[in-house]
Amino acid sequence: MFKIISKVIGFINQSIASIGITAGVAVAFTNVVARYVFDASLVWATELTIFLFLWSVFFGAAYCFKKDAHIAVTVVLDIVPSRAAKVMLLVSHLITFIFLLCVAYFGYEYLLLVNDLDERSIDLWDMPMWIVYLVIPIAFSFAAFRVGERIHAILSTSHDKIVKESEAEHVLSEMGIGASRNADNKNVQELNKMVKEVEKKTGGLL
Question: Which of the two residues, 71 and 166, has the higher pLDDT score?
């Protein structure tokens, strides 16, 4: 059941994020062409572009929780014992989970307020604004679900495997450096030295 929900949420997140950014760019480009070529600006284009980008960003951010792609500073996790790292990760994810649920809840409350006030868009054909603000409770609920998945993964993962690699190691492996775990000792030592140099120069903020 949870796997099905996860796939559905993933599909929605990816679809809205990609469609939103594509449609937003298309509308903005069309408006620029209409303005400078035909001297006829589309009055609704600016507001529609903002709303499309807004939906794309929020659902894209929710999708990033699935890929664990949000920026994270792992300097402390890399130096503390693995048991402590697991606890720290669990606490940080729990705080994030609670925050996302709170935003989703109060976003829903604000949605009801906007609906009661009958707030409407002036440029977008008198469209009710609650439709636009619907992105907040939905996107943050999806993000909370993803963080819940991460919490379950942390709880079910052994503490000695909880921190697989630092961000510097991850970047280097993406570059094809140190990808082989069967390298000889000299290569391993050189890789470790390179990782430490990278983390030293970036302060672990890479």
Answer: 71
